[in-house]
Fold this sequence. Notes:
It is a single chain. The chain has 2 domains: about 1-85, Glutaredoxin (3-Layer(aba) Sandwich), CATH 3.40.30.10; about 95-205, Glutathione S-transferase Yfyf (Class Pi), Chain A, domain 2. The chain is built from 9 helices and 4 strands, in the order βαβαββααααααα. It has helices at about 10-20, 45-50, 70-80, 95-105, 115-125, 130-150, 165-180, 190-200, 205-210; strands spanning about 1-5, 25-30, 55-60, 65-70. A 4-stranded mixed β-sheet has the order 2-1-3-4, covered by helices on one side. The longest helix is centred in the middle third of the chain and has 22 residues, at about 130-150.
Amino acid sequence: MKLYGYWRSSASYRVRIALNLKEIDYEYIPVHLVKDGGEQHSNEYKLLNPAELVPTLVDSDNESDIILNQSLAIIEYLDERFPETNKLIPDHKLDRARVRAVAYDLACDAQPIQNLRVLQYLEQHFNADQNAKTAWAKHWIEQAFASVERRIQNSAADFCFGFNVSMADVVLVPQYYNAQRFGVDMSHYPLIKRVVDNCNKLEAFVQAAPEAQPDAQ
Ligand SMILES: N[C@@H](CCC(=O)N[C@@H](CS)C(=O)NCC(=O)O)C(=O)O
C-alpha cells in the first residue's frame, strides 16, 4: 500500500488516520504541493491522479496496481477491504447515512472552498491578499462547524457518534487542524473540541498528525 500525500493536506491526513485505525502498513510518498509550483502538477503525478490533487492511494497487493483518489472513497474502500479492524462506516443504514452526512458537510461543503488552488485563484484573479484569503477560509469553516456542532448534539459522546470512532471523526480532526491554522475561535464549538481532543488521545490520530510526517516543515 502506498499513499501519496502532503503533510499539511487535510485530505491526506484523513487517509493517514484511516490507515492507522485499520492497522494497515503503508509507504508514505510526499508530494510537495508548493515547491516549484507544486509537484501535484508534474507529468509523473498526473499519470497517477489526473485531478492533480492529493491523496492518491496505490494498493499493490493484487496482481496489478489499484490506483484510487478521493479520500472518502479511499476510506470506504479500506473499510470494506479490511472489515476485521475498526469499522469506520457503521453497518446500519441510518447510522451509515448520518456518519457520511457529517463527513460530507466537511469534506464536500467546507474543505474544497478553502483548498490551496482556490486560495491561489482568489489571489491571482481577484487580487485577494493574505488577510482576504484567511477571512474567506475562516468564514466557510465557521459556517460548516456551526452546522456540525448542532448536527452532532444528540449523537456525540466520546466521538461524533457515540463511543466508536467513525469516518465523521476521521474527517473532523483534519478540518479542526485547518480551522486552527486559519484562526477560527474554537470556543464556539465545544462539542467539536471535545470530540477532537478525544480523538487526539488515540495513537492512530497522533501518528497521522501533520507534524509527525517525514515531509513536515
Ligand atoms: N475531495 C478531495 C480533495 C483533495 C484535495 O483538495 N487535496 C488538496 C490538499 S487537501 C490538494 O491536493 N491541493 C492541491 C492544490 O490545490 O493544488 C479528497 O477528499 O481527496
